[in-house]
Amino acid sequence: MREAAKQHWPEYLMEAAGLGLFMVSASLFASVLEHPASPVRQAISSPLLRRALMGLAMGSTAIALIYSPWGQQSGAHLNPSVTLTFWRLGKVRPWDALSYMLFQAIGAMVGILLASLMLRPWIADAHVNYVATAPGPGGPLVAFGAEALISFGLMTAVLTASNAERLARYTGLFAAALVMTYIIFEAPLSGMSMNPARSLAPSIPASTWRFLWIYLTAPPLGMLLAAELYRHWAGPHGVICAKLHHHNDRRCIFRCGYAARDAVLRE
After folding, report:
1. What confidence tens digit (pLDDT) does each residue in 28-44 have?
2. pTM score, whole prediction
3. CATH fold of 2-262
4. Among residues 100, 133, 103, 118, which one has the least CA distance to residue 203?
């Protein structure tokens, strides 16, 4: 454990920084698109169009983070549910998984803190509310089901693409496209989280604790179910690595199967 911490701390910090930047981006664009005093909000009355712009902004943010040098090295999980799922699939060592999830949570909290300092008082307005996630009119059970379903869809796409030779380098694009689509069409049901750390961080300044259980449980359940079904379909060795983007020269700290696979292919 101590040796892993000494060797892999750069990846832990990259995960923290990545999710922190994601939270700052979400806070900035939510403030611009939703605060009543924003000229953009005043010019665009359609909630669907505003969600489309938000989806485009956050999808683009996801692409930038996944394909950045940091994302290429850490694997760009940026989500405790993703890390937990790859640990369950045997690709992340227990200490690395625990450290990733801890630093993701810290990064999200630091990101919200920075956004609060930058965007005050806009971020505290009820229309932005620190980009906290909350159930829509359908209530908590609908939100729970929606979160589990979209998390299942995201992990299924990630596993399918990242383990296919022709699609692997585009995994980040598929993931970002789903993030954008979910924000546009699913956000009214649950707020579109898929990420316990992303929902935990804003719940502190926004004091939205009542439904936090949804976002701490539904995303990992959905992703773990996707992993079990994928492993049943692809076999126990069907998952090669835990990176979303592996076609680069950055080091890999996971139980990576690319080296062994490439050696077999060369024979």
Report:
1. 999 999 999 999 999 99
2. 0.93
3. Glycerol uptake facilitator protein (1.20.1080)
4. 133
